[in-house]
Every structure is written in C-alpha cells, then in structure tokens.
Amino acid sequence: MRTSTRSLTALLAVVAISAAAAGCTVSEDKDKATAGAGSIKKIDALAGKSIRVGSKEFDEQLLLGQIAIVALEATGAKPVDKTNITGSDNVRKSLTGNAIDLYWEYTGTGWVSYLKQTKQIADPVGLYDAVKKADEPNGITWWARSPANDTYAIVASSSAAQKTGVKTISDYAALAKKNPAQAATCMGPEFKARDDGFPGVEKTYGFKLPTAQTHLLNDSIVYPTVGKGATCSFGSVASTDGRVAAQKLVILEDDKHFFPVYNPAITIRASVAKQYPQLEQVFSSIATKLDSKTLTTLNEKVSVGGEDAKKVAKDWLKANGYVS
Amino acid sequence: MTAAPTTTVDPQLGRRVGGADSALGRLRARWKGLVIRPIVLIVVLVVLWLSVHGRQLDSIEARSLNRHEITTELMDHIKLSLASTVLTIAIAVPLGILLNRRGARFIKPIGLGLGNIGQAVPSIGLIVLLALWIGDGFRTALIALVVYSTLPVLRNTIVGLESVDPTLIEAARGMGMSRRAVLGRIELPLAVPVILAGIRTALVLTVASAVLATFIGAGGLGGGLVVGLGQNRPILSVTFGVMVAALALLADWLGLIAEEVLRPRGM
User: Fold this and answer.
1) Which residues of A touch B120 (CB under 8 A)?
2) Among candidates A10, A86, A231 on the partner chain, residue whose Cβ is nearest the Cβ of B136
3) Superfamily (CATH H level) for A152-251
4) Which residues lie below 8 Å from residue A228, measured CB to CB, with a gap of 6+?
5) Please, what is the average pLDDT of chain A?
6) Is A189 close to B227, i.e. CB distance below 8 A?
7) How far is B208 from chain A (nearest CA, A)?
8) In this predicted model, what pLDDT tens digit does every residue of A187-196 receive, in sequence order?
9) ∠B150-A19-B216 over CA atoms, to 5°?
10) Was domain A45-150+262-320 assigned CATH 3.40.640.10?
11) Could A90 and B133 be called an inter-chain contact, meaning their C-beta atoms sit closer than 8 Å?
C-alpha cells in the first residue's frame, strides 16, 4: 500500500487536530476578565452567581457566546460555558427547557422558526419589538439588539459572478430556470430544510432547482467548495461569515427582500432577566457597538485566522474599554 | 473444530456426499435460526412506518419524510455501502494474502499499521479533510469509507491465514502441491470463516459510517438524520436512525448467509 507523503501528512494532521480538540477545555483564570476593571461595573447581586451561557455551533456564535461570558465575568458573575450546541432548535430548546440561561439568537430566526410567523417585517427595530412581544408568553426575554445583520445569503463564486453576470437572486432564479446546469448550488442542511431558507427562496422567486443541481454539504465545506467553483457556482452562506471574503464570494442582492433581518440579540430566561435587570444595560451597550462590519472582522479572525474565540472576544472588549 | 476436512467425492455418483455438509444442505439445516433476523427487521420497519404514517408533519419534517426523499437517500446509502465493501474486499483480501507470503513477512507490521491509522482517524475528520483536499461527492466518500473499513478485513485475512495449521501446509507441500495450490486449496478455504467475520465487521462499519457522506454532498440516510438532529425533529432522527440500523443489521445478516455458504465443509 503506497501512500503519498501528502496524504500521510493529511492523516497525521487529522490525528493532531483531533488530539488537540480532545485536549481543549474551558481555559480557566488565564484570560478571565477582572471584575469591574473596565467600563462594565461590578454588579453586587451577581457576585459569584453562575449564569449558563449557550451558543450554536458556528464561529460567530462561539464568538458571541464568549463575548457574553467575558462580560459576565466583568460583572463579577461566574458564567458557565455551555456554548457550541449543534442546531438552532437545540439551543432554543436548551433555553426554554432551563438547561441554559441565555444565548444570542437572531431576530429573524426567532420570528420565523420559533414563533412560526409568516408576516414579513422589513424594519429591523419593528421586527425586534414584534419578536420581543410574541416571545413573552414563552418565558423568554429579548434584550440588546445588535445592528449587525447576519442574514442568509446566496453567493456566487467570483468566477461564476463574472461569467454569468448574475447580481441579484432574481438573476440567479432566471439562470436556474434557463440553464440549471450553470446554477448548481451548494447548501447546508439547515438552509435546505428551513422555511426561511432555500424552500422559501424558491417559492418567492418562482423557480425550482433540479435535485441534480442541489448539493447538500456541511456548512463549513460550502465555503471552500463554492470558492473553488468546481461542484457549485453558487452557495448558501451567512452574510457576516469571515469566509465570505476569504473565498472571494460575491453576495447576491435579495431584490425581493425575502430574507428577514437577522439581528443578534440576547435571549434570556424571563426569571433570570427579572432577577438581574442590571444585565440588560451591560449587553445593550456591547450590542450597539457590534455592527455588521465589526462582527464580520471578528468572525474572520476566528474562522480564517484560526484565533481562539475567547481571546478574540476579550481583545475586542478590551479595545473598547469594557474590560481591562 | 473437528478433524481436518476430507474431500469425499463418491466416484460412482460424481458428486459430494453428505447432504447436510453441502452449502445448501447446511442452510436448510439452519434456516430457522437465520430467518429470525429478517422477520424482526421487517416487523420493526412496519411498526416504524405505522407510527410515522399519518402523523401531522410540519414543513421541515415533510421535506425529509416523503417517498421520493427517502428512496433517494436509501438508494444513495446502499450504493455507497456496496461500492465501498466491494472495493474494501478487493483491496484488503489480496493485500492480506500478499503480506502473509514468506517474502513479505517483514512489512506485515507496516501494512497493519497503515490499516490501524485508517481506523484510528476519526471518520468525520477524515471525510471532511478529504473533501477539502480532493473535492466533495460520491468518490470522496467512497475513498474515506474504504480507508476506514480496510483494517478489519486486512487484519482478519492475515490472522485467518496465520491460524492455518502449519502441519497441513507441510503435508500438502510434501504431496507435491505448489505454493499457489496450497494457498488456493488449503489455506484460503480454511481461513474463510475468519476473513468473513472481518468482512461482516467492515460491512456494519461502512453502513453506519456512510451516514457521514451527507456532509460532503454524497447523499445517504445521514441527510434526514442531520436535519432531525439539527432542527430538533425527533421524528426524523428516529426514522432515519432506525433505517440506518436496520440496513446495517441486514448487511450483517447477508454476511452471515455468506458465511454459511462459503464455510469449508466439516468446520
């Protein structure tokens, strides 16, 4: 059995990566924020109280989760790291089922996926207010809307964008109708399954991509695959993902405004929110600083630069004077 | 284990003597034991169908739980598992034989070592890394599955051949049989049960691991499973999970049948 050195290296790399992953634990004290040293002040009611912070499994969520954890440390609380839960619905269930206390959710996801609303609200603030109100009966409080919009987006590889001249999703839909072979699209399982994902795009833009041109991949593989442009010329991405720029992907304009606004905001169990109302101000002041550009830059550090999410979170909070 | 097998051919009849000792005869003798598993599997699948059928499905569930989607995923899964098993056997059995020849004894540990690496690598890491390296799709999934399931077949081929009684080989050589004839007529037939046990292990591994093919655009029953887990739709995870398990048990059962048919007589 002859194995080229390259594949052996690859195999060894996998072994090394898995070994490293196995050895990853929550980094204690080493980079723990000192309570009250920055603009986030100590909150006496929270001293030593454990708050369980969750997140979904992708880099932006890991980063947002760590931002919340570092901020909580600065208030003197003892946050418990429960981040990296796979699948939006599972994180939400953890929150409603009292397995975690808070996590960053997106307004659009809350509206469409959990509250099962079909009415489109284009105004970000209006959507946030509507979600906040509709989620109250479920015992969930929404706080601290960030202006960042991590919307789903359809992207084209830079070569496909040049070759086909597709700029909007309407152009893409026309291409899919006229020449499906050229419109091969890679997408993640969540985007393929959700109503605010591909099924909704097809319905709104009035086309049906043949199964042969629909490639289901894990989200993390969508980016490099579309970047290479071999299997797919188009793909589903999260607009603030650091890999969009890294792979030179071109975001197509959602000209029919199908995708709702996805502003990250803190969702917290109502009982915890009532107990520690001072936390709202802490998260609000952080959220307003997190616009799309900032979030994308931070994401890029984690996804492309390979930096540790907690470190990136802490550096950013430090740079903005929240902690020191 | 009974005494060494003797090939009794009745000169008058020109056929093997001993009905219960021929492959079909043996199957007939054991059919009651062999028929239990498919019956249980059919019952489980019918119960599953009855409990899922007629449920109110939401849009996410309906997209995975329909005849077209299930058939597509099932066919992809079967194709991938079959191709992978055939390739694994085609690679690992000859390799095991080669590594067991006198001249190659010193590289045996290397061969087994490579097989060990293949199995030690987390399959999901392997499949994703391969996809990033050589692209996505069926071919990549196939390579990953073969790398992953080569070891049990390779190891069992080597162990099976090693466990053949050396006195038998010497006797055969003494009768003037060539090395090749000894391999084909003595060693391999005697090693068949052990080799087949390895192939059965590989089959079950392959069917189970083929779930990961969905991550790299190669389809399979992992599709419904991943949506079920990610979107918190237990009806999907249970349905597709049970289907994968049933398929693995069915593959294992086919291996059992093959064992019954191919086992040398008298063992």
Assistant:
1) 15
2) A231
3) Osmoprotection protein (prox); domain 2 (3.40.190.120)
4) A157, B135
5) 88
6) yes
7) 18
8) 999 899 888 8
9) 55
10) no
11) no
